[in-house]
Amino acid sequence: MTMILLPGAVSLGQLEQLYWSGGAARLAGSADAGMERSARRIAAIAGGDTAVYGINTGFGKLASIRIAKSDIVELQRNLILSHCSGVGAPLGTDIVRLMMALKLISLGRGASGVRLEIVRLIEAMLERGVTPVVPEQGSVGASGDLAPLAHVVATMIGEGEAWLDGQRMPSAAALERAGLAPVILAAKEGLALINGTQTSTALALAGLFRAFRGLQASLVTGALSSDAAMASTVPFHAEIHALRGHRGQIDVASALRALLEGSAIRDSHIEDDPRVQDPYCLRCQPQVAGACLDLLRTAGRTLEVEANAVTDNPLVLSDETVVSGGNFHAEPVAFAADQIAIAVCEIGAIAQRRVSLLVDPSLSYGLPAFLAGQPGLHSGLVVAEVASAALMAENKQMAHPASVDSTPTCANQEDHVSMACHGARRLLGMTGNLFSLIGIEAVAAAQGIDFRTPLATSPELARAMSAVRGKVAWLDRDRYLAHDLDAARALVADGALAGAVSAGILPGLAA
């Protein structure tokens, strides 16, 4: 089904649906009038004698060079070809399709000066599955994501390469097979299409949605670990968290209480438990995961605003003046990406400590060493825990903020840049690590829960246990574990583990 996008009012929920579904999108018809108005204004300037940046001048450091009217079409084409300088492996088609949808939203605000013909082609490419091949590296997140967006536009003019029906082919062939024709860019259209933060924002949104999926799964595995370790549920008491007041902390504590409600494992030892307090990785889950949830929600609000923003240059204002500014600078996206990276790192770090606790008989309250059926003869999850530590370490190393770096470019015309694009792109790898780490916790916690038999876990966690055991069998003796860990990772990555519990228990991305 094609999603209808109302520029300036597209919600984070719509963007999340668009990302996970990879579906088509088009602008609401109400956007057409504004786009036509600004396109007429640009056409008038292109036909006149007044120099206006990006319409009849060169670009960046070359802005002082006047371009003849007869060369304006060639200027736009040359801009795209010269800026197709991306390197590295192609971005996933899910990311590129989200980039294209974000560009639609920005153009639809009616301040960019492109003709409806341009917008209709992007919509048709999304509908018919023509997805440009876009190298993942080459943007510093200022003056727009120039290189990656240029590769998108290259397909629109019949250059470069595109994916269609799972095949990589020349863009001209992909357009022809899809029944589409390349466009000839008019004044400013190439610049409007490559100026903007749509690559950085698409990558940051993907990182956000993946991070949130990992967070939700970590609440399930954290509750499973708590029950496996026979931890106290007193630290999740509602009043404790109300007294502090942070919304994320309150929401996480509520989820943990609901997940653990009715556990016979916990009820079995309330009266005679010799432990006074549990380690922080169990007791402080609301404080840590809640802070991560708050951080993701903050980043989500920033990215929702950015997704609806006009970020090219120059802009056609409401009084039809055309002015140059700097909305292409992706500093807000860079900060959001760094916030998400910190949250991803911490979600994984506390989960790894729970895995470590479960395999350590000095901490796990009666569970066998490394959760092995016969420790010594069998090693159980000894190296699965090592793998979780390796993943945690990788994410810590990648969590250093990208936004604090800046390398001047374009002969010092673009002398401060955001580094948002690769700051956001690293989130794909970090969340991939997080999915694997939470998957390992799911395996360890399920093993611990089963060791508590005949005592039963809570009804909600029993649903989560069924999801895990549907993919990963009880580890009664050592076996080849890599496939099990891959299966557990998939449960986290595709949302099945979080989706196993009743709707409404886990917190949402919106506060």
UniProtKB/TrEMBL annotation:
InterPro entries: Aromatic_Lyase, Fumarase/histidase_N, HutH, L-Aspartase-like, Phe/His_NH3-lyase_AS. This is Histidine ammonia-lyase. The keyword Lyase applies. One of its GO terms (molecular function) is histidine ammonia-lyase activity. It is found in: Cytoplasm. Contains an active site 4-methylidene-imidazol-5-one (MIO), which is formed autocatalytically by cyclization and dehydration of residues Ala-Ser-Gly. The lineage of its organism: Bacteria, Pseudomonadati, Pseudomonadota, Alphaproteobacteria, Sphingomonadales. Belongs to the PAL/histidase family. There is a cross-link at residues 142-144 (5-imidazolinone (Ala-Gly)). Keywords: Cytoplasm, Histidine metabolism, Lyase. One of its GO terms (cellular component) is cytoplasm. GO terms for biological process: L-histidine catabolic process to glutamate and formamide; L-histidine catabolic process to glutamate and formate. It catalyses: L-histidine = trans-urocanate + NH4(+). Its EC number is 4.3.1.3. Pathway: Amino-acid degradation; L-histidine degradation into L-glutamate; N-formimidoyl-L-glutamate from L-histidine: step 1/3. The modification 2,3-didehydroalanine (Ser) is found at residue 143.
